[in-house]
Amino acid sequence: MRQESPKRLGILGGTFDPIHLGHMKLAELAVAQAELDVLILVPCHLPPHRDGMHASPEDRFAMSRLAVSAYPGISVSDYELNKSSTSYTVETLAHFHNEFPASELFFCLGGDSLAQIKNWHQWQGILDLANLVALDREHGHAELDDEIMSRMISSTGQVVKPAGQILQLTAPRINVSASEIRRHLMNTGGGQDVDDYLQRWLHPDVLKYIKEHQVYA
Hints:
18% strand, globular, 9 helices, Rossmann fold, alpha/beta, single chain, seven-stranded parallel beta sheet, 37% helix
Protein backbone atom coordinates (compact mmCIF):
# COMPACT_ATOMS: atom_id res chain seq x y z
CA MET A 1 0.00 0.00 0.00
CA ARG A 2 1.33 3.45 -0.95
CA GLN A 3 2.09 5.72 1.99
CA GLU A 4 0.25 8.96 2.57
CA SER A 5 2.09 11.80 0.87
CA PRO A 6 3.29 14.72 3.01
CA LYS A 7 2.78 18.09 1.32
CA ARG A 8 6.45 19.12 1.39
CA LEU A 9 8.90 16.23 1.40
CA GLY A 10 12.64 16.84 1.75
CA ILE A 11 15.36 14.47 0.59
CA LEU A 12 18.91 14.72 1.96
CA GLY A 13 21.50 12.30 0.64
CA GLY A 14 25.00 11.58 1.85
CA THR A 15 27.50 8.89 2.69
CA PHE A 16 26.86 9.30 6.45
CA ASP A 17 30.12 7.48 7.20
CA PRO A 18 29.44 8.03 10.04
CA ILE A 19 26.40 10.25 10.48
CA HIS A 20 27.16 13.01 12.99
CA LEU A 21 25.47 15.91 14.73
CA GLY A 22 26.69 18.30 12.04
CA HIS A 23 24.49 16.41 9.57
CA MET A 24 21.57 16.64 11.97
CA LYS A 25 22.02 20.39 12.50
CA LEU A 26 21.78 20.90 8.73
CA ALA A 27 18.77 18.58 8.57
CA GLU A 28 17.00 20.57 11.28
CA LEU A 29 17.81 23.80 9.47
CA ALA A 30 16.35 22.48 6.22
CA VAL A 31 13.17 21.30 7.94
CA ALA A 32 12.64 24.61 9.74
CA GLN A 33 13.58 27.10 7.05
CA ALA A 34 12.21 25.23 4.04
CA GLU A 35 9.07 24.42 6.06
CA LEU A 36 9.28 20.71 5.28
CA ASP A 37 6.67 18.35 6.65
CA VAL A 38 9.02 15.36 6.45
CA LEU A 39 12.73 14.99 5.70
CA ILE A 40 14.14 11.64 4.58
CA LEU A 41 17.86 10.96 4.86
CA VAL A 42 19.12 8.69 2.07
CA PRO A 43 22.51 7.05 2.69
CA CYS A 44 24.06 6.32 -0.69
CA HIS A 45 25.43 2.99 -1.82
CA LEU A 46 27.94 3.92 -4.54
CA PRO A 47 28.30 7.69 -4.89
CA PRO A 48 29.42 8.76 -8.39
CA HIS A 49 31.92 11.38 -7.21
CA ARG A 50 33.58 9.71 -4.21
CA ASP A 51 35.78 6.77 -3.35
CA GLY A 52 34.47 3.74 -1.49
CA MET A 53 32.87 3.78 1.94
CA HIS A 54 34.59 2.83 5.20
CA ALA A 55 31.50 1.39 6.95
CA SER A 56 29.21 -1.21 5.40
CA PRO A 57 25.77 -0.24 4.03
CA GLU A 58 24.17 -2.09 6.94
CA ASP A 59 26.20 -0.19 9.53
CA ARG A 60 25.60 3.20 7.91
CA PHE A 61 21.85 2.54 7.78
CA ALA A 62 21.78 1.36 11.40
CA MET A 63 23.78 4.38 12.59
CA SER A 64 21.53 6.76 10.64
CA ARG A 65 18.40 5.27 12.18
CA LEU A 66 19.87 5.71 15.65
CA ALA A 67 20.86 9.31 14.90
CA VAL A 68 17.38 10.40 13.73
CA SER A 69 15.52 8.71 16.58
CA ALA A 70 15.31 11.96 18.56
CA TYR A 71 14.13 14.09 15.62
CA PRO A 72 10.39 14.00 14.85
CA GLY A 73 9.71 14.36 11.16
CA ILE A 74 13.13 13.06 10.09
CA SER A 75 13.53 9.47 8.94
CA VAL A 76 15.95 7.28 6.98
CA SER A 77 15.47 5.32 3.76
CA ASP A 78 17.53 2.34 2.62
CA TYR A 79 16.45 2.79 -1.01
CA GLU A 80 19.92 3.52 -2.38
CA LEU A 81 21.64 1.04 -0.07
CA ASN A 82 19.54 -1.75 -1.57
CA LYS A 83 20.72 -0.93 -5.09
CA SER A 84 23.76 -2.61 -6.61
CA SER A 85 24.38 0.24 -9.04
CA THR A 86 25.71 3.79 -8.70
CA SER A 87 23.50 6.16 -6.67
CA TYR A 88 22.17 8.79 -9.07
CA THR A 89 20.06 11.57 -7.57
CA VAL A 90 17.66 11.71 -10.51
CA GLU A 91 16.76 8.04 -10.00
CA THR A 92 16.29 8.51 -6.27
CA LEU A 93 13.99 11.49 -6.79
CA ALA A 94 11.99 9.54 -9.38
CA HIS A 95 11.57 6.76 -6.81
CA PHE A 96 10.23 9.12 -4.14
CA HIS A 97 8.05 10.91 -6.67
CA ASN A 98 6.43 7.54 -7.40
CA GLU A 99 6.14 6.68 -3.69
CA PHE A 100 4.66 10.07 -2.76
CA PRO A 101 2.92 11.37 -5.92
CA ALA A 102 1.06 14.15 -4.13
CA SER A 103 4.18 15.56 -2.44
CA GLU A 104 6.29 18.48 -3.52
CA LEU A 105 9.88 17.22 -3.42
CA PHE A 106 12.71 19.35 -2.05
CA PHE A 107 16.19 18.00 -2.64
CA CYS A 108 18.70 19.37 -0.10
CA LEU A 109 22.33 19.88 -1.03
CA GLY A 110 25.32 22.04 -0.19
CA GLY A 111 26.21 25.21 -2.03
CA ASP A 112 29.42 23.63 -3.36
CA SER A 113 27.41 20.76 -4.81
CA LEU A 114 24.94 23.17 -6.38
CA ALA A 115 27.83 24.90 -8.17
CA GLN A 116 28.71 21.54 -9.75
CA ILE A 117 25.21 20.29 -10.48
CA LYS A 118 25.53 20.62 -14.24
CA ASN A 119 28.14 17.85 -14.04
CA TRP A 120 25.64 15.50 -12.39
CA HIS A 121 23.95 12.64 -14.23
CA GLN A 122 20.78 13.94 -15.95
CA TRP A 123 20.89 17.16 -13.95
CA GLN A 124 17.96 18.66 -15.84
CA GLY A 125 15.85 15.73 -14.70
CA ILE A 126 16.61 16.60 -11.09
CA LEU A 127 15.12 20.06 -11.58
CA ASP A 128 12.13 18.54 -13.39
CA LEU A 129 11.35 16.40 -10.34
CA ALA A 130 12.10 18.67 -7.37
CA ASN A 131 12.81 22.10 -6.04
CA LEU A 132 16.28 22.37 -4.52
CA VAL A 133 17.27 23.60 -1.07
CA ALA A 134 20.83 24.90 -1.22
CA LEU A 135 22.50 24.99 2.19
CA ASP A 136 25.25 27.56 1.69
CA ARG A 137 27.91 28.21 4.32
CA GLU A 138 28.13 31.61 5.99
CA HIS A 139 30.64 33.82 4.17
CA GLY A 140 31.27 31.03 1.69
CA HIS A 141 28.78 31.32 -1.17
CA ALA A 142 29.77 29.33 -4.24
CA GLU A 143 29.86 30.98 -7.65
CA LEU A 144 26.87 29.99 -9.82
CA ASP A 145 26.23 30.46 -13.52
CA ASP A 146 23.39 32.58 -14.89
CA GLU A 147 21.06 29.66 -15.61
CA ILE A 148 21.23 28.41 -12.03
CA MET A 149 21.03 31.96 -10.62
CA SER A 150 17.81 32.57 -12.56
CA ARG A 151 16.14 29.82 -10.56
CA MET A 152 17.21 31.13 -7.14
CA ILE A 153 14.71 32.31 -4.53
CA SER A 154 15.33 33.48 -0.98
CA SER A 155 12.17 32.54 0.94
CA THR A 156 9.65 29.73 1.05
CA GLY A 157 6.92 32.21 0.17
CA GLN A 158 8.45 32.46 -3.30
CA VAL A 159 8.05 28.74 -3.98
CA VAL A 160 5.32 28.77 -6.61
CA LYS A 161 6.29 25.74 -8.72
CA PRO A 162 6.35 22.02 -7.86
CA ALA A 163 9.89 21.75 -9.24
CA GLY A 164 12.72 23.73 -10.75
CA GLN A 165 13.23 26.49 -8.19
CA ILE A 166 16.23 26.75 -5.86
CA LEU A 167 15.73 27.99 -2.31
CA GLN A 168 19.00 29.36 -0.94
CA LEU A 169 19.52 29.06 2.81
CA THR A 170 22.51 30.22 4.82
CA ALA A 171 23.85 27.47 7.04
CA PRO A 172 26.20 28.11 9.95
CA ARG A 173 29.75 26.87 9.49
CA ILE A 174 30.04 23.54 11.30
CA ASN A 175 33.64 22.55 11.96
CA VAL A 176 33.28 18.80 11.78
CA SER A 177 33.70 16.17 9.11
CA ALA A 178 33.14 12.43 8.92
CA SER A 179 36.80 11.91 7.99
CA GLU A 180 37.94 13.76 11.12
CA ILE A 181 35.55 11.71 13.25
CA ARG A 182 36.93 8.50 11.71
CA ARG A 183 40.45 9.67 12.51
CA HIS A 184 39.49 10.18 16.15
CA LEU A 185 37.71 6.81 16.28
CA MET A 186 40.86 5.04 15.10
CA ASN A 187 43.00 6.91 17.63
CA THR A 188 42.37 4.39 20.38
CA GLY A 189 45.04 5.84 22.66
CA GLY A 190 43.94 9.46 22.35
CA GLY A 191 42.64 9.81 25.89
CA GLN A 192 40.02 12.20 27.21
CA ASP A 193 40.36 14.76 24.41
CA VAL A 194 39.37 12.15 21.84
CA ASP A 195 36.46 10.94 23.98
CA ASP A 196 35.22 14.51 24.42
CA TYR A 197 35.38 15.17 20.67
CA LEU A 198 33.43 12.02 19.81
CA GLN A 199 30.80 12.71 22.46
CA ARG A 200 30.39 16.24 21.13
CA TRP A 201 29.69 15.16 17.55
CA LEU A 202 28.11 11.70 17.71
CA HIS A 203 24.72 10.74 19.07
CA PRO A 204 25.37 8.56 22.17
CA ASP A 205 23.65 5.56 20.59
CA VAL A 206 25.68 5.98 17.40
CA LEU A 207 28.94 6.08 19.37
CA LYS A 208 27.87 3.02 21.34
CA TYR A 209 27.00 1.17 18.12
CA ILE A 210 30.36 2.04 16.55
CA LYS A 211 32.26 0.74 19.58
CA GLU A 212 30.17 -2.40 20.02
CA HIS A 213 30.37 -3.35 16.33
CA GLN A 214 33.95 -2.11 15.86
CA VAL A 215 32.79 -0.30 12.73
CA TYR A 216 36.01 1.66 12.19
CA ALA A 217 38.45 -0.65 13.95
